[in-house]
Design goal:
The protein is mainly beta. 0% of the residues lie in helices and 50% in strands. It is built from no helices and eleven strands. The protein has strands at residues 3-7, 10-13, 18-25, 33-39, 46-52, 58-60, 68-73, 78-83, 92-99, 115-118, 122-127. Strand 4 (33-39) and strand 5 form a beta hairpin. It is globular, with a radius of gyration of 14 Å. The termini are far apart. The mean pLDDT is 94.
Length: 128
């Protein structure tokens, strides 16, 4: 059973920083990707960033590129999202997600349908 546990959310002022963590357990993630999505009240869940363990590639939404950095520690099965220069529009519940087995297939990191497992989410609030 795959489990994803997020941590690191909180309240921060505009321009501040937070680091989210997602600890994954239940399988070896070398053939998978881990991603971050977010959902603000009244809006659909949207892609933020992802990392593909097998190739080490990273992907970002245009809205966070240059401000957020995704990284991973394969030994700990943990992925991080460093968020800098936070804006009020970054306020949302942030979810960690683990993809299906990507062996021999194409992968669209921005599609939530690529992800089989989701964490419970962690709230990020940015005050102006």
């Amino acid at each position: 059973q795959v489990q994803l546990v997020e941590s690191g959310g909180g309240l921060v002022q505009v321009g501040g920083s937070l680091r989210l963590s997602c600890a994954a357990s239940g399988r070896t993630f070398r053939r998978y990707a881990l991603g971050w999505f977010r959902q603000a009240p009244g809006k659909e869940r949207e892609f933020v960033a992802a990392i593909n363990w097998s190739g080490g590639n990273t992907y970002y939404a245009d809205s966070v590129k240059g401000r957020f950095t995704i990284s991973g520690d394969s030994a700990k099965n943990t992925v991080y999202l460093q968020m800098n220069s936070l804006k009020p529009e970054d306020t949302a519940v942030y979810y960690c997600a683990a993809s299906r087995d990507l062996t021999g297939t194409d992968y669209n990191p921005r599609s939530r349908y690529e992800y089989e497992y989701w964490g419970q989410g962690t709230q990020v609030s940015v005050s102006s």
